[in-house]
Amino acid sequence: MTFNNPAQRKLSYGLSLVALTLTLTGCPSANNTANAPDGGTGTETTSGETTTSDLSGTVIIDGSSTVFPVSEAMAEEFGNTNPNVQVTVGSSGTGGGFKKFCAGETDMSGASRPIKQEEIDLCAQNNIEYVELPVAFDGISIVVHPENDWATCLSTDELKVMWEPAAEGTINNWNQVKPEFPDQTLTLSGPGTDSGTFDYFTEAVVGEGGASRGDYAASEDDNVIVQGVIGDKGALGYFGFAYFEENKDALKVVPIKNEAGECIEPSREAIADGTYNPLARPIFIYVSKTALETKPEVKAFAEYVTDPAQSELINEVGYIALPDDIIAKVQTRLQSATVGSIFEGGSSLGVKLADKL
Amino acid sequence: MIAQTPPSPESASVAAERPYYPNTSWRYGLDRLFVIAIWSAIAIAIAALGLLLFDILLDGLPTLSSQFLQGFPSRSAERAGVYPALLGTIWVMLVVMFVSFPLGVGAGIYLEEFAEDNLFTRLVEININNLAGVPSIIYGLLGLFLFVRLLAPITGGRTVLSGGLTLALLILPVIIVATREALRAVPDSLRQGGYALGATRWQVIWEQVFPIALPGILTGTILGLSRAIGETAPLIVVGAVAYISFVPEGLQSAFTVLPIQIFSWASRPQQPFHAIAASGIIVLMIVLLLMNGAAIYLRNRFQKERL
């Protein structure tokens, strides 16, 4: 019967399409009006500073997921005092971040390790100069099951026995690591090979960045490693300090023998003063020099990030703020726009920031 | 009665060896067994879904508030909200819908009703069917190259438009295949009847075949859109960000979507973020249900209209 009336049919198509569109756009417009009056609720909760700047523009940040919480916290607070600056933070990994950064697509790049030689070359090819800014410390924490009463102190050599490529398929019991350890299956979990934590750990423990046994439970999500260690008496895993701090009660952390031969447990103090070595490492934000010079909002944001007043923010998101003397040097570095990397394409292992900056 | 040919001696002997036993209890037993098997299949599927929903609702409902819906991402889970991600998802899905539906249905109609059956169309068909199985990250790389880099002057780089177009590509094969299946299910007698009455090809397709096929096409579209709304990998490649302090203002705006926001929260060390990740999942589910509800409503309307 509707065959007789094409016009009516067309009308009903049209109406339905409009209805569909309205259903989908209905929610945002409702939210939009609701949001407008109290959009600034975040402003009062912070720093008490109510003066807002008239800076505007965009700050595009990408890079390491380890540095992401720091950049996010900074972007949030910065946004409260500079409401017209649009800050976006991506989380595509240290390597993925540098790819975009060296292509000139981003203003800043978070990195959980120093820039590598091939990335330096890539940036040079595209004439991207950068200022390297250490922003915080992280301590790689080695954790075991809470019922593990034998791993009271491990040396990097013992960790190497467990993690080196030669251990693959052969080292799978705790008593193979040290004869005094009980007969208990050793199950390892750790970050995947894309992670900066993995790079640093292998460099510090095995002696070569990226060299690790392959038969461990690898995960890009550190919460999975936490669960893996909680569920197995013979488990050992490693990840950033923030994950240990949040799961203190469910896990046991293993003190690591440092260069001086002392067994040191990762703590905010030990990481900041350098006694927790060699597993404490700096994390970085790289800023494009061109962006610093041409975009005042990028310069303002970089200054904001390196301001010692932000230490509290860094501690809040699970990292360890740099000591004041290092922050002062980082600030000088930013002010004078010193380009290049102090690590010259190498690792940050064993490098004393205070001397090199 | 029909005249029967007299049975040959051979077949008669076979029949004598194997007399017919109805054995009904065995056959009904099998019947019942099958019913039990399919019921347990459905029970397992529903139980898994139910458990998942229960777990998510348990974790996420307490933190689901209007402040959560209107809030921006934050380092503190109490203040964090999904507003930019929710709007980002809606923007991207609108792009996906307006691009993939006409393109997919158009391509399906062409291939099924107009294209001649030759080597070229068969090649196209095989490729479309294969594309439906390509991992989504590959579409992300395609989107990065095509929309973000090559068409940057139009899309503006890593924007809502690039993300939406990439996801539209991703679900095009699903819509094309569904459209073709739906058109194929329409009896040929209807087309021939139309031609017999003097209708043109276009009139036959638009007035008779398409309306009958529409419910099937919409089902395919629902499946496609449901896939697109949950995608993370291609959008990360295309450049959806993880923290954003503003909502998309247009097609050329930076954006994030709900799955990326949820992933970002779920991988945090702090427990409160895991709870708001669950709340984010509830929001995503509601958007998905609204979207599918609208499509199902349309489908039922067209089905009724036909009768």
H/E series of chain B: HHHHHHHHHHHEHH
Q: Mean pLDDT of chain B, as a whole number?
A: 89
* Order of strands in the sheet with most strands of chain A: 2-1-3-12-4-13
Order of helices and strands of chain A: HHEHEHEHEEHHEHEHEHEEEHEHHHEHH
Helix content of chain A: 40-55%
Strand segment tally of chain A: 13
User: With helices defined by DSSP (H or I, 4 residues minimum), what is the helix count of chain A?
Assistant: 16
Strand-residue proportion of chain A: 15-25%
- Largest sheet features of chain B: none
- Note the quaternary state here: heterodimer
Structural class of chain B: mainly alpha
- Any low-confidence stretches of chain A, pLDDT <50, length ≥5? 17-49
Which second-level CATH architecture of the largest domain in chain A applies? 3-Layer(aba) Sandwich
What is the CATH topology classification name of the largest domain in chain A? D-Maltodextrin-Binding Protein, domain 2
CATH class of chain B: Mainly Alpha
CATH superfamily of chain B: MetI-like
What does this structure look like?
The complex is a heterodimer of chains A (357) and B (307). Chain A is an alpha/beta fold. Chain A folds into two domains: 6-137 and 282-356, D-Maltodextrin-Binding Protein, domain 2 (3-Layer(aba) Sandwich); 141-273, Periplasmic binding protein-like II (D-Maltodextrin-Binding Protein, domain 2). Helices cover 41% and strands 17% of the residues of chain A. In chain A, the strands form three sheets. A six-stranded mixed beta sheet of chain A has the order 2-1-3-12-4-13. In chain A, strands 7-6-8-5-9 form a five-stranded mixed beta sheet. In chain A, strands 10-11 form a two-stranded antiparallel ribbon. Chain A is elongated, with a radius of gyration of 25 Å. The N and C termini of chain A lie far apart (83 Å). Chain B has a single domain (66-306), classed as MetI-like fold. Chain B starts with 8 loop residues before the first helix and ends with a helix. At the A-B interface, helix 1, strand 1, helix 3, strand 2 and helix 10 of A face helix 3, helix 4, helix 10, strand 1 and helix 13 of B.
